């Protein structure tokens, strides 16, 4: 099965309601294939060597290890119950998994494929991110409304920061100095200073003709130079473009319906969005911030990764 | 009168396992604390309920003996999970009074034990009586069960918060949806009980607000005997009227379910049966609601009901105030709960908050049939100058409540 598709840039999208993975050729913007995986696939991460995909099959209570070329399942990881989102170490050795129903973050050793530790956090852990310098794992809890700062060396919560209601995604800047956190209910983005672990800026979103309750910020991507950050606004059907230095909204880009998660192309020239309600992926050209294409992929696209 | 007092204090999460883990038979686990190692303070909450005669229950509905209580306990567990990071411990004292008994002695006893945050699920008249107890205004009450608009109107009190939607809010949710469907000719069928009449009044008010016409109103008389069947009675009862939709007001569930599919004309049934406006429903899964549904079901072995949701909201409101103010002090918590800053995430996609004019928690209302969620009100296109949630129920200019202003 190796070499079944050979394209310059491969986009993998989890389809929550199809129990499947969609594969899109980033060059042509065409759906290449769809492969059945586990039940209710959501979070997805690519291994550092680009050979394997880790996919949270929430209703199978497992993270599946999938060969990125053959799309065959080659193993499972002991993720704990109902895994949804997870993040990988900079060196690719550990995964940190949010177990929403158990108020835990599970740490998995990828080499041994075994659970190292379960770390108690607040109610309904959701967003999770590892700082690029490897110092922190940040976990957000949706009902406790906190960012829990897990010291990666000790694997313990050492500090907590109260944030706006229902925090969803978390993302570190490339220099590990800021953590960005979206709040679904407040309709806002909080920027935290990692050193003090305190908020330094709160960015609200406002779109003419869109009621505030439709603005539910979720996925975040920030470019490595920290020129722009991008925030998916859920049922507002927009991606907010943020000046990552001034921390101000530059513009809103109209994409598909209920935009959930975002991913850069390897050269950072394009951004892919998963649109859960319109069953497609939007392609944004980042040189001029224009939405250039939408690609039908299947039912309830959720997570997205891109392999060079 | 028998007063049953159950002290249900959750084990402090840093000294023992959490309730959920104990229930699951897992070993207790140590919990990492935040960097601030200040003293643990406790926030003590009470739940005062009164037994009521069971409403009509068909054999296929399981009896529920812990309605409300189970929701409060889940929210206590949620609060205590958060409390491990804020060094706050929450306890719940539950008191149940016999049907028909005076609730005031039990209320007084809670106050004498120092409890000042008190959830109540009481008949409207019993709730009114609490206001005559000395020291009533020194506590904060959360009404988790009533639908009574007068308790938020002319009989309101400055220290009574209400967490479930009123009849007017429910009827308005239905009215908005029927307006959106252009089903504006209603046949209103109330029962003769007090609650049925109150819901019918809310439906009439909603018809006026949303431009619907009640083409006829026919009171259901519960006049079945052995020789009359729903098959023969309902067609005749509904014959002769031209209407789009039948709106039934039967809070006891005594006859409303007999109407659908038996009317003279083929018309949908909405109201207390059929398509129902409700605060919470098993079919509601959006905005993270599935997580709350799952957590509740895992603990309680049944689906979360409206009363459970009302109790969950009240205990979480207290927890949210404690987290945001970093305080366990009653006055600080009360002032924050009554302030404009307070908002609560209630799994309905928008922040919930208390209306300052009548202490009612503003919230979306679900419109559901037994196995499917049909819509959520406020429906698209309904607008309000300040907050669209205030299109449901009595807005500031309409409220008869003076005490809370």
Number of domains of chain B: 2
Counted by DSSP, the helix tally of chain B is 10
Query: Averaged pLDDT of chain A, please?
Result: 94
Q: What does the radius of gyration of chain B come to?
A: 22 Å
SS content category of chain A: mainly beta
Distance between the termini of chain B: 37 Å
What is the mean predicted local confidence, pLDDT of chain B? 89
Beta percentage of chain A is: over 45%
Helix content of chain A: under 10%
- Give a quick account of the main beta sheet of chain B: strands, pairing sense, barrel closure: 6 strands, mixed
Strand content of chain B: 15-25%
Which structural class do you get from the secondary structure elements of chain B?
A: alpha/beta
Q: Biggest sheet of chain A, open or closed, and with what strands and sense?
A: 4 strands, antiparallel
Shape of chain B: globular
Assign the CATH topology of the largest domain in chain B: Rossmann fold
The oligomeric state of the chains shown is heterodimer
Give the strand tally of chain A.
28
Within CATH, the superfamily of the largest domain in chain B carries the name Response regulator
| Strand order in the sheet with the most strands of chain A | 3-2-1-28
